[in-house]
Write a structure and sequence with these properties.
This protein has 51 helices and 59 strands. Strand 56, helix 50 and strand 57 form a beta-alpha-beta unit.
């Protein structure tokens, strides 16, 4: 309809006086103006009357009234009597009388006190008070909150109690006294209601500003209380959800204030008329939301009411004032009937209708008897019978009168009233944005807007409550746009920018620029009826306004009923009753009287379960029999049953289509007759030769994108484990178990079992034996969520509790199905079971249970109270990014967004459409049978159409050509395609037709009816009819089962299909029943998805998308140009990329022919989408019939002309020369039978014209030819793999093979089609802005719309911010006081579009998770056999095998083994030993073995392993001390200084000691100077401690070092000290806050492992002396202090012990480090040993013949027990980087100390590739020079110009000797018998040189060198013990090499002179070298010479 255009009335306005309207030509001007404006395209009327009042010169206040007018209105008086004059009390003498100041002279103005600190007593509130003398200012006062009304205008005590905020005077008990004190200077009686105007609050800057108005009797005296209380919080009402036709709203009148409309759609702009469902308003800014907490937006509404009055004698009582409140309060249904069995819905939870939409039965009259006494309306008898409708009354403003009489035939709803309420509570959102007065819409404007909205609705459109709500909001926003913008000015630029891709538009198009602005005047009640009647007059009788001469609503309703009974409303859809009697508030209600609207509204008031029960009742009671009989009658063509009885069943007579409908394809089949055509199905299936080469089924293929999603899931699980919150300790799990929860659908259950079994996951997890087991065994891992699920869940909980090392994954598939709260669960319903089980405390607190929710529609799980963290959401990724195929998929997903896109492509028949012929017949029958449910009528008509189509197509009914007009063209085409498809394939492959009938009873009736018709027509062998009942298994005829078994090559005799996927290529009609789909996957042979009878009443996003998701499909990737990934917005299918379409229209013309949306389709000349049928026979022709698409039923002309044209276009992209020949394409069987102008020439697109299409009354089922079928591709199923034609030939004879490349066609109801295909203001499909689910509500009406540019993550955050769960949602209880979230840490959400492959993805995830756990439980252990064993073993065993400890006397008799056996030293010099005989036949080391020399083995970690920082478990969190849940451990830094003669200076070390470890140390006083470590006594015996301190030197391994010894020590007390370098102190402290750190001095930052061990040993000895001194001072014996320490490598991971008591011989098993150390410390003679250790583990360690002795003497490595007392005089070389342990052991042995290796213990070393003391970096000092420096460059001649290196000199020397000694000592190379003599130290001279170690110390133990000729002499830092006489004891070969090493050149010369070396050695000047260090780096010098 047309409303006022902009500017149309501006010339009509003028000034008036005293609030009176101008009368000059007023009526004429107004009438003409309104009449002209009604022809405009603008929806919201201009405020005509607001420009016709009051003097312009008068200052205007908010809402267009003067201040004086405001005061008068606010007086609260019930009459219009003049005000009573008031004489103020004169102020005391000397008091201040200035306006704005109190009598004490203190300033009270808000502008002055805004920044001051005010003392507000408890219970008082700051209030802004208006003074008539200061119109622009507010005065600040404090008032007791008990004397102020609440948000509803209730509960204010009479009287006053306030304080002055200026002088601070308190205790004003009368407002009169207070007004005198603050100098109000009033002329009327002071009243608090009149002057206390606003609440005050402090904004974010701490400034006191004006807030919300105080709710006195209705703000400004214009708002009436029309609803219950509103408060901040989430919705708890069971009000029906929005998007339902004016009966379902998302706002909750009982507890919530915000409007819950679906978005902010545009009302209209001037160029586009408004149609229902097409509104779009640009969204408002996010910044207007008042956040009550992080992520918790809330809106606080302004609620007013008609009381309390100022004086109680006015007759007010709480009961009378609450009448208007109680009638709108939504009653909570009794708990016994809160949930239905089908779906979760706000109304579903009730067994009866709520009072928001209540049939007024006698048992429910109390719900509508809340009107004032004496006012009642009698409902006429026989109302439904007389009028053929059940009127719906929408309560509006004021109480609805009580209805009496025939109340069962009237429905009453309060949703419109709730809409009014929400629109009047909007302004409270803006209370924190400044002091400007923002007023709600007036009652009159709401009513007028309602009339305009009803007027513009089409005759078949049903009003949507959210549309009206958005109109209100749009009108209000436009009226206050300037204030809103002003309030948003202070915002930062960041807050005004893009929020979810939404910005506030500068203007609101389509709205009058001056609508409702504050400077305009509101409508008066007296003008409203007349203006509403003028508006209604533009639509004739469609909307009738009853407003004249009405004194009450009762009178108006009585008049309405009278006219209704008299037939006066036959052409009227809506009657609006308006009461504007003087002296009372404006009242209104809306009565729906249109038959179509009444039916739709009445049915939408049913919950889904109630609707199904009503349908069942109508079927069982026989009410539908008259309808069925009526449909069976075909008029002049007879009766359908009679025609069926006359059907000819001659088996020899072919049953093709009639000649006028027959296709060439069918003719070709008939022209080549085959004997199989006449065989029975049983005979046919047994002919194995008749196979189709194009058919293939592959179940186990995992697509690349599924693998990517599985890895994303795994990475999220790892992120939880790595988060250091100890919510998931992956390292502690050794296996995976799982349980998959599915909805209670037998097909879904079997489908999941099939996927699970075929995926191989069970075998991979070890859950089933590899060889045995069947598919039945997989059923125990899948649970249907019905009553039987409780037992399996409980069993899993018990199993998880007892198996703490197993990680249990609960996969909740189809997770959106049951989100009901367990508190609302019925015993006979499965709803609420998920909440009861998955949200139970046992599962929530189990640390080894992880929940994975999987769904295509995650919206209901993304609310403000969700349990799932946004970081734990995994969204299905997009296959394309910037037109690049990311995963190289062989398939392309075609889902809901592509379906919606096809409706607007404009170049081809949309895949999604409606059937106008069917809609016309259904509408006619709905009017004829008003008492029947529309689902019964529509289903009956649909099945009637299918039966007639079967009869017409079968050819077995005489005169079947007359049957065409009784069915629709769409149905006829579907049946025709179904029957003809199987004839085109030698194996009789066909396709599936899906009929979606939600009612089980209707579906069963449809199945019986269709089966009977099929039987009577003799078509049982042509196709199967399947009833898909969720609660029952599939039932397929045996002949079809045999056929499927042949196709799938199944040999099992008792096999039967259990899933729809196994019906691939079976020609069938599947009748899918159930209130909603439950996750059933459909085969790729699905061609038609018939949704014409689904309910149009429940318009939620989830409900709509899961119905449309039945048609989701996987297409061949080749069916689209590689540069054009596909049409459609992916907002509906969780695209990880942007949600907007990426189509390029210019590329569409080159799309592959297989694309259903390619633009090479010819333009259509038929009417536009959704237009009325323009064909001659409207009853039998659909407007969609002449159109076609390659994925649906093309018209004959379409297929004929399209085929050659598409071949030519495709040849450009896919060159196929053979396809260019027209003769070849003409010869194919797919061309149509009808003649075309030239079959040999491609017909241009202009040939597709309307006149030609008229020649073809019916579409043909044949499809155009796909150009190629080159590869197999996965099936349509979620993860089943691939179904595809194998042949690449374009000449396909199999209809199925062609169909798998095309998505199915979808048929929808007209009303649903119109809503779905409309776009909202953001350009997205309208359904995306619907309420996401019935169980949630919008948090605010001020939410922005979803944006095209939103990613899935942003979409999730959008729903998390803007939706709240209703009371029956399982997350409604997920709130914790004081927390903004309450996420479950082990809960994940996987979302992806339907049928995309989520099942395969999460099954693969289970497999790789199990493999990862195995990988995490395993480490790479060095597994190397010991080296350098003597070729000749003596075989003597010195100790008994069962000896627990070594005997010192026996050990002294053992020879010391000088040879190094550790395989890590296989590249060092051998240590000469006379008894060692090297193997002469040893194989040389191959070059390829160099990098593989260190052999490792994967070993599973034992429970006694040492761990790195990545390990988290509940047992060792206190040990680690790194947990956000616990307070970080405090630690202190302590200095410790001691003197060492060798270093020549004091050494200062630093200890970082945590508070919890201070008891291991002694201090001078608590918190004072560190004195030393406490050491135990030798006599101490405790099983709960280790006596030896453990020192672990480490560098570069703060994350990977194995310092967590909690499990290795089995929890016992121990002292563990990490020895770190000074520059690494901070990072080690961060990662190991509860460990003691010993920080080396800064001078050792570049030192090697020798320095660390040197300082550890010397510090320990110094501490031992200190401890002995303390013991002596305390009177104890000094010698009893424990003298041992442990030196442990940072890669020791596990320890083992040899068990000698087994029957099969020695067996090695894992033991704790505690057991090992306690055993060694318990050795009786341990004090006799200087050094103890153990062997390194090897898998062949026990089999080695050299390991027979339990104890041995030799070199020890990695894990040492050192006696610091006995080894006092033997120090580690602090300069050493390599082989320091070999050097130390040799010197320790030469000093006469016993060295013992415990061979029955072994240590496992983990391979750690990061850090460590063996990681050396040799680099130059010049950064611009490459660092690749060879060993020859490590030295240079002194004083030469050489490239200096930034590497310690000692390291350069050691590395030089290691790599070049074979040149330095040429006589020693591979000459074991003539080693190099090394005095007092061992240096590695490379593996080709043998070193003989001797000690120069007196009384040292050396090998016998008599007769031994040495090939060289190595003197390294020779001390005074090396003398010329000592050297003369050794004999050298002639030409032997001498190498003398010193710290500088002078000491080098002194050494040569002191040792008289020149007597026997010859030197040259060129033989002096230094390391390549700069002078400041103190290079080392060495001199070489030759023996004379």
């Amino acid at each position: 309809m047309n409303l006022w255009p902009p500017g149309s009335l501006r010339t009509l306005m003028g000034n008036s006086y005293a609030g009176q309207l101008r009368t000059t030509r007023f009526e004429e001007v107004l009438h003409n103006s309104i009449e002209a404006s009604l022809r405009s395209n603008i929806v919201v009327p201009r405020p005509v009357f607001s420009q016709l009042y009051l003097e312009a010169e008068q200052p205007l206040a908010h809402n267009g009234r003067t201040e004086n007018d405001d005061e008068d209105d606010e007086d609260g008086s019930e009459t219009n009597s003049p005000p009573i004059l008031y004489q103020m009390k004169s102020p005391p003498e000397g008091c201040c009388t200035t306006d704005g100041f109190c009598q004490a002279g203190r300033d009270l103005r808000l502008s002055s006190l805004a920044s001051d600190t005010l003392d507000v007593p408890p219970g008082f509130m700051l209030v802004g008070l208006k003074s008539p003398s200061l119109p622009d200012s507010l005065l600040v006062c404090a008032v007791d909150h008990r004397f102020l009304p609440d948000e509803r205008g209730h509960n204010a005590l009479l009287g006053f109690s306030g304080n002055c905020m200026g002088c601070g005077e308190k205790g004003f008990r009368y407002f009169t006294d207070f007004s005198n004190h603050i100098n109000l200077k009033l002329s009327t009686q002071p009243k608090k209601q009149k002057h206390l105007k606003y609440h005050l609050y402090r904004n974010n800057q701490g400034v006191l500003v004006k807030g919300a108005p105080i709710c006195w009797r209705g703000h400004d005296g214009r708002i009436r209380q029309i609803g219950p209380s509103i408060s901040v919080g989430h919705a708890t009402s069971d009000e029906q959800s929005p998007n339902l036709p004016l009966t379902h709203t998302s706002h909750t009148p009982s507890n919530y204030s915000a409007s819950h409309a679906n978005g902010l759609p545009q009302i209209a702009d001037s160029a586009q008329p408004l149609t229902n469902g097409h509104h779009a308003i640009p969204p408002i800014s996010q910044a207007v939301i008042n956040h009550s907490g992080p992520g918790r937006p809330s809106t606080i509404g302004t609620q007013t009411n008609a009381g309390p009055p100022k004086k109680r004698h006015k007759g007010w009582s709480p009961e009378s004032a609450s009448n208007g409140v109680l009638e709108n309060t939504v009653k909570m249904p009794p708990s016994s009937s809160t949930l239905s069995s089908s779906t979760v819905h706000p109304v579903t939870t009730t067994g009866v209708r709520l009072d928001t939409a209540t049939p007024l039965s006698s048992s429910q009259r109390s719900l509508t008897t809340l009107s004032p006494s004496g006012l009642s309306v009698a409902v006429p008898d026989q109302l439904l019978h007389t009028c053929g409708l059940q009127p719906v009354i929408f309560k509006g403003h004021g109480p609805l009168p009580r209805l009496t009489g025939n109340v069962s035939e009237v429905l009453v709803s309060s949703l419109l009233q709730s809409c009014y309420l929400s629109s009047q509570t909007l302004p409270r959102v803006y209370q924190h944005y400044g002091p400007s007065p923002i007023q709600p819409l007036s009652t009159e404007m709401q009513i007028l807007l309602t009339v305009y909205y009803l007027v513009q609705l089409g005759p078949d459109q049903v009003p949507l409550i959210e549309d009206l709500e958005q109109i209100f909001m749009r009108s209000w926003r436009e009226s206050h746009l300037s204030e809103i913008r002003q309030n948003q000015q202070p915002q930062t630029p960041g807050s005004q920018g893009r929020h979810y891709g939404i910005e506030t538009p500068p203007t609101l198009p389509g709205l009058p620029q001056n609508l409702g602005l504050p400077h305009q005047q509101p409508l008066t009640p007296s003008q409203l009826p007349w203006l509403a009647q003028l508006a209604a007059s533009s639509c004739g009788e469609g909307v009738v306004v009853l407003g004249e001469q009405l004194g009450s609503l009762a009178q108006g309703l009585q008049l309405m009923f009278s006219k209704l009974m008299e037939g006066g409303f036959q052409n009227t859809n809506y009657a609006v009753v308006i009461v504007t009697a003087s002296g009372q508030e404006t009242q209104s209600c809306v009565v729906v009287t249109g038959k179509h609207q009444c039916r739709a509204l009445a049915e939408s008031m049913f919950s889904p379960s109630e609707g199904l029960r009503e349908i069942n009742h109508q079927l069982s009671s026989g009410e539908a029999q008259e309808l069925i009989q009526f449909c069976n009658s075909l008029g002049q063509d007879g009766d359908m049953d009679s025609l069926l009885d006359s059907a000819t069943l001659d088996s020899n007579e072919p049953s093709p289509l009639s000649s006028s409908q027959e296709s060439t394809e069918d003719k070709n089949v008939k022209n080549t007759p085959s004997p199989k055509d006449s065989r029975s199905p049983k005979e046919r299936v047994l002919t194995s030769k008749e196979t189709c080469s194009e058919y293939s089924v592959e179940w186990r293929e995992v697509r690349p994108i599924q693998l990517a999603v599985a890895r994303k899931l795994l990475s999220h699980v790892c992120a939880i484990a790595d988060s250091s919150t100890q919510n998931l300790d992956l390292v502690s799990f050794d296996r995976v178990s799982f349980l998959i929860l599915v909805p209670p659908s037998e097909v879904t259950f079997q489908q999941t079992v099939l996927h699970l079994w075929s995926s191989g996951v069970l075998q991979e997890l070890g859950s089933l034996d590899q060889e045995c087991g069947s598919q039945r065994d997989a059923e125990r891992f899948v649970v249907k969520m019905d009553q039987s699920a409780q037992v399996q869940i409980d069993s899993l909980i018990q199993e998880a509790h007892s198996n703490s090392y197993t990680l249990y994954i609960l996969v909740h598939d189809h997770a959106h199905w049951d989100i009901s709260s367990a508190a609302y669960r019925n015993s006979d319903s499965s709803l609420g079971l998920v909440d009861q089980l998955l949200n139970s405390r046992q599962i929530r607190d189990a640390p080894n249970i992880l929940i994975l929710h999987v769904t295509s529609f995650p919206f209901a799980l993304q609310t403000q109270f969700t349990r799932i963290s946004p970081y734990n959401e995994i969204h299905w990724p997009s296959s394309f990014s910037n037109d690049v195929d990311l995963y190289h998929e062989r398939t392309r997903y075609f889902g809901v967004s592509e379906l919606l896109e096809s409706t607007s492509s404009g170049s081809s028949l949309p895949l999604m459409r409606y059937d106008s012929s069917f809609e016309s017949m259904a509408s006619a029958l709905e009017e004829r049978f008003p008492k029947l449910h529309s689902a019964v009528i529509r289903t009956t008509v649909l099945i009637h159409h299918y039966c007639l189509a079967l009869m017409a197509v079968s050819g077995r009914i005489s005169g079947s050509h007359n049957l065409h007009k009784h069915t629709s063209v769409e149905t006829l085409g579907i049946v025709q395609s179904l029957l003809s498809a199987a004839q085109q394939c030698p194996a009789h492959h066909g396709h599936m037709v899906l009929l979606r009938i939600p009612s089980l009873a209707l579906a069963a009736w449809a199945h019986r009816r269709l089966s009977r018709v099929r039987r009577q027509l003799g078509l049982e062998d042509k196709f199967e009819i399947i009833l898909g009942n969720p609660g029952q298994p599939l039932n397929i005829g045996q002949s079809f089962i045999d056929q499927i078994k042949i196709w799938l090559k199944i040999q099992e005799a008792d096999w039967a299909p259990r899933t729809y996927l196994e019906l691939e290529a079976l020609p069938c009609i599947l009748i899918l029943s159930g209130a909603e789909p439950l996750g059933e996957s459909l085969p790729r042979s699905l061609k038609y998805c018939d949704l014409r009878v689904i309910s149009c009443s429940y318009l939620q996003r989830t409900t709509l998308e899961q119905e449309l998701g039945l048609a989701a499909y996987l297409l061949k990737a080749e069916s689209r140009s590689p540069h054009n990934p596909g049409p459609g917005s992916d907002l509906l299918e969780s695209d990880a990329e942007k949600l907007s379409s990426t189509d390029n229209e210019e590329e569409e013309g080159q799309d592959n022919e297989n694309s259903p949306l390619s633009s090479n389709q010819p333009p259509q000349s038929s009417p536009g989408i959704g237009a009325k049928d323009t064909f001659p026979t409207q009853s039998s022709m659909s407007p969609k019939a002449p159109k076609s698409t390659k994925a649906s039923t093309p018209s004959p002309s379409r297929a004929q002309t399209q085929l050659p044209h598409q071949f030519s276009s495709q040849a450009f992209l896919y060159p196929q020369p053979s396809l260019h020949h027209p003769s070849q394409s003409q010869s194919q069987t797919y061309t149509q039978a009808q003649q075309i102008p030239s079959q040999n020439q491609p017909v241009p697109q202009t040939h597709f014209t309307q006149p030609y299409i008229h020649q073809v009354p019916q579409p043909q089922p044949q499809q155009p030819l796909p150009p190629t079928q080159p590869r197999r591709h996965p099936s349509k199923s979620t993860s089943s793999g691939s179904l595809s034609p194998r042949s690449s030939s374009p000449h396909l004879s199999c209809s199925w093979a062609r169909g798998v490349s095309r998505p199915p066609s979808v048929l929808l109801p007209r009303s649903l089609y119109d809503i779905i295909t409309a776009n909202d203001g953001s350009g997205l499909p309208r359904c995306t802005s619907f309420l996401p689910h019935m169980s949630v509500a919008w948090a605010s009406s001020f939410r922005p719309l979803l944006s095209k540019m939103m990613t899935c993550t942003e979409q999730s955050l959008y729903y998390r911010q803007w939706t709240v769960p209703r009371s029956y949602h399982m997350d409604s209880s997920n709130r914790t006081e004081g927390r903004s979230d309450n996420f479950h840490p082990r809960r994940l959400l996987l979302s992806g579009p339907p049928q995309v492959g989520k099942t395969g993805a999460y099954l693969h995830f289970l497999g790789i998770l199990a493999r990862m756990l195995i990988r995490l439980m395993e480490v790479d252990i060095y597994n190397e056999e010991e080296i350098n064993f003597n070729a000749e073993t003596d075989g003597v065993q010195h100790s008994q095998s069962h000896a627990l400890w070594p005997n010192p006397d026996i050990m002294k008799t053992l020879p010391f083994d000088y040879t190094v056996h550790d395989p890590k030293y296989d590249d060092i010099s051998l240590v000469y030993c006379p008894s060692y005989k090297p193997a002469t036949d040893a194989n040389p080391v191959r070059q390829e073995d160099v990098c593989l020399r260190r052999r490792t083995t994967r070993i599973k970690l034992s429970k006694y392993a040492a761990f790195n920082t990545y390990h988290h478990c509940e047992h060792c969190h206190l040990y680690l001390g790194f947990n956000p849940r616990y307070q970080m451990y405090e630690s202190s830094l302590h200095a410790f200084t001691f003197t060492h003669l060798r270093l020549g200076e004091d050494i200062q070390l630093y200890f970082i000691i945590p508070k919890s470890k201070e008891h291991y140390f002694s201090f001078s006083q608590p918190g004072g100077q560190l004195e030393g470590m406490r050491l135990p006594l030798t006599t101490d015996r405790s099983p709960d401690c280790i006596k030896s301190p453990i020192f672990t030197p480490t560098t570069g391994r703060h994350e990977h070092g194995l310092f967590n010894l909690y499990h290795a020590m089995d929890g016992v007390s121990h002292l563990h000290i990490l020895v770190v370098k000074e520059y690494e102190m901070a990072v080690y402290k961060k990662y190991w806050p509860n460990h003691i750190l010993l920080v080396l001095p800064a001078i050792f930052n570049g030192a090697g492992i020798g320095a660390a061990h040197f300082l550890i040993k010397e510090l320990s000895y110094h501490n031992l002396e200190l401890e002995r001194s303390r013991r002596l001072e305390g009177g104890g014996p000094a010698g009893d202090v424990w003298p041992f320490i442990i030196l442990a490598d940072d890669s020791c991971v596990m320890w083992n012990a040899v068990d000698l008591d087994t029957r099969i011989g020695p067996v090695e098993h894992a033991v704790s480090l505690k057991q090992v150390l306690q055993h060694m410390e318990a050795c009786p003679d341990l004090a006799h040993y200087g050094l103890c250790g153990m062997r390194k583990w090897s898998s062949r360690g026990l089999a080695d013949p050299n390991q027979k002795d339990p104890f041995s003497r030799g070199h020890l490595h990695d894990f040492l027990l050192l006696n610091i007392d006995r080894s006092q005089n033997v120090q580690y070389d602090q300069n050493r980087f390599t082989c320091h342990d070999i050097d130390f052991t040799l010197r320790l042995h030469s000093a006469g100390l016993l060295v013992c290796r415990f061979n029955n213990f072994s240590v496992m070393k983990k391979q750690i590739a990061i850090g460590g003391y063996r990681t050396f970096i040799i680099k130059t000092k010049m950064t611009d020079v490459p660092t690749s420096v060879g060993p020859s460059q490590y030295i240079c001649a002194p004083d030469s110009k050489h490239l200096f290196l930034a590497t310690p000199a000692q390291l350069l020397l050691e590395k030089y000797l290691q790599h070049t000694s074979h040149k330095l000592f040429p006589l020693s190379t591979k000459n074991y018998e003539h080693p190099v003599l090394s005095v007092d130290c061992y240096l590695n001279l490379g593996p080709e040189v043998t070193v003989c170690f001797v000690s120069s110390r007196p009384h040292s133990i050396n090998i016998c060198t008599t007769g031994l000729l040495f090939s060289g002499l190595l003197l390294c830092f020779a001390d005074a013990f090396v003398t010329p006489s000592f050297l003369k004891n050794f004999t050298f070969l002639k030409g032997a090499t001498l190498c003398v090493i010193s710290a500088d050149r002078s000491s080098l010369r002194q050494t040569v002179g002191r040792l008289e070396l020149e007597e026997e050695w010859r030197f040259r000047l060129s033989d002096e070298f230094q390391t390549a260090n700069a002078k400041e780096d103190r290079p080392l010098f060495f001199l070489t010479g030759k023996h004379i």
